Amino acid sequence: MKKEHPCKNNEFEVLRIGMDFKIKCTKCGHEVMVPRKKCEHNIKKIVRKNES
């Protein structure tokens, strides 16, 4: 995300996608529901996990 979380982290894990995105801070574990339009606008970079 463009703006960092109050715990000084800017990486989030996406838990659910729909009308809203449910994202989780990878540092402190706080979960937030964000409207789709706002979340898509604020995404800076997508990092995918290796699937093996």
Written account of the structure:
This protein has 52 residues and is an alpha+beta fold. It has a domain at 12-42. The chain has one helix and three strands, in the order E-E-E-H. Strands 1-2-3 form a three-stranded antiparallel sheet. Strand 2 (20-25) and strand 3 form a beta hairpin. It is globular, with a radius of gyration of 11 Å. It starts with 11 loop residues before the first strand and ends in a 10-residue tail after the last helix.
How would you describe this structure in keywords?
single chain, 52 residues, alpha+beta, 3-stranded antiparallel β-sheet, globular
Alpha-carbon Rg, integer: 11 Å
Q: Helical percent range? A: 10-25%
Major β-sheet strand ordering: 1-2-3
Beta-strand proportion: 25-35%
Shape: globular
The main sheet comes to:
3 strands, antiparallel
Question: What is the total tally of β strands?
Answer: 3
The oligomerization state is single chain
Task: Label the structural class.
Answer: alpha+beta
Average pLDDT across residues? 87
Q: What is the ordering of alpha helices and beta strands?
A: EEEH
The count of helical stretches stands at 1
Poorly predicted regions: none
Distance between the termini: 26 Å
Short account of what is shown:
The protein is built from one helix and three strands; from the N terminus they run βββα. It has 52 residues and is α+β, with helices and mostly antiparallel strands. Strands 1-2-3 form a three-stranded antiparallel beta sheet.
